[in-house]
Amino acid sequence: MRTGIRWLLRIVFLLVLSAACGTFIPRPLIAPVDASSAAVTHRILLLSGPIHTDIAIPLDAETRAAFSFLDNTGFPLGHPNAEWLIIGWGGRAFYLETPTWAELKPLPVLRALTIDRSVLHVDLAGHITEPQSTVTAFNVSEDQLVQLRDFISESFVRDAGAVVPIPDAGYGEIDRFFEARGYFNALFGCNTWTAAALRSAGTGIWNPLPQALRLSVAVYN
Known about the structure:
Layout: H1 2-24, H2 35-38, E1 41-48, E2 53-58, H3 61-66, E3 84-91, H4 92-97, H5 106-113, E4 116-125, E5 135-141, H6 142-154, E6 158-159, E7 162-163, E8 176-184, H7 190-197, H8 210-220
Antiparallel strand pairs: 1-2, 1-5, 2-3, 3-4, 4-8, 6-7
Helix pairs in contact: 1-8
């Protein structure tokens, strides 16, 4: 009995140590920032829930051009009242079948704890109030914003060059789900994808929880 407790404590200690190291040990930038573009900054938002994070990118002309491939899917990228493009990545079963906590089911949780195919959730937002506890804002250079857009764009699965929307999947009238690259699991899930996307802004090497990712961004940005 005591041996089992000791092993359990060791596992908990290793998980806590790994999370701490992942938060505070920086990962190198995706690419060096060109000095000519470093003076130009763009505001990016990290939107955090209890277990999930999304990225909000300002929906300017450059963002609309970079994600123009969404126009062919029925997604209203040109909505006149939209100010932000919201992107999130996650496990297919949990993401599609759990729009609210009240609709939580055992099978999606099991898939999230093991391994699952991934999807991208794309949405629009108008004005987002700052500051608030669920919103972390930071600035990136022109080059870093291009890297961020490219990373997100490359996360979409493509069939003959076109992204693949998931039919009849969405939480409302505007948002859409798309097939995504990669597989989801508990150790490398939605928050580690968000951290990888934001790497040019500065994050730790492993951020499995929204709280760790917010702290890591605060430390290195």
